[in-house]
Specification:
6% helix; single chain; 443 residues; mainly beta; disordered N terminus; 2 helices
Amino acid sequence: MRKNILKILATIIISAFCFCSEDFEYNTGFKLNFSSDTLKFDTVFTGEKSSIRYLKIFNNTDKNININTIHLENNDNQIHLNINGIETTSAENIELRKNDSIFVFAQAELKNKTENYSLTNSLIVNTGGENQRVIITAYAINVEKLDGTINSDTTLPENKSYISHSGVKVAKNAKLTIKEGVSIYFSKESGIEIEGALNIEGTIDNPVKFQGIRTEKEYAEIPAQWRGINFKEESQTSVINCATIKNAQTAVSAFSNANITISNSKIENSFYHGLYLENTNSQIYNTLIHNCGYSCINISGTGNYQILHCTLADYWNYNFREKSAFDCKGSEQNFSTLVANSIIYGNKTNETDFREKDNINIVNSLIKSDLTENEKFTNCKFNLDPEFANPDSANYKIKDSSPAVDMANYGMLMLYDFLETDYFGNQRTEDDGPDAGFAEYIK
């Protein structure tokens, strides 16, 4: 037995010696292969570390090669490297066996400037001949921190970008005004809590944007990346105009006594609700709410609610959705809801849910529902495909053959002149009649 063990140990030692004594060729000038010719950082916030990108370097020759150097062309401490498992700014004499590969990981941490900018650098790899290079690109968004409590009237000036890690609270008797073109990016457990007032002043061409900090393409439609906007019981009259609110847990929640107007906005990919409204007074118009895990709009308790020229499109497919796109359970007293000139559709059989006793009127709307004979519906069309342009890419404009074309109530436009234009600023009065939904069909 002892002799056998000694033989095995001798074999291991000899094998290790042979393995360690492999020859590597220096200054060969051999060309290496790369998994990509470019490392792209889509969007990087200044002063924040980016997500990590990686590159594989392959030796597809039949020789063991020594790589002379791997380094950045411009080492300005904005790109950090990990080469073959070692954090470094550059590496020398890296042994790469034939038909083997190594990893290079890269992370960006870009400097603050006065405005957004693009960065270009190169990863240089040399084996003794001409340099080989991989281009590194990053787009930097110049951000300011937005955290803590706002105790007095505050305005975020137009076209600025902010990042929030711990969340924002607007104290009672304070008002936060957000001008057009502002973008706010939130970490997972952050959001906006309103005890005072919120006034969002976006424009059609330059909306205000709220979303999570993950801006990569693969996160573009992932819900629950941040908490959302929460109006507390003591909050004051607030306006959200021309905003995009995406990928939240619940995009907007509002409770007792809140008075909120939401107009010309998009609410996208909420894990729970697009709008959760309880004991409030709310007017929502020219607004698209789509792909929510529970409901696009959930209403409960008391209050007066108007939903005018909106599109609720719920094609949620992350898991089973129990709720309808429009879920309304009001109080027997001090409650009324009007839905007019709207589209409520989705991938469930029934996308409206309310009780017979509720004071609800749904007029001139295209509805997916099994309650087609209910007296709460007036001049509605049921269970007809709205023929959205491309719901798979979140394009919820309607086609010219849509049953929603020309079906809206013209009197609503006479009563509320702000409905004469749609979400995109198109006139609703220039053809045979206004169309249901947030967007007018334009030839």
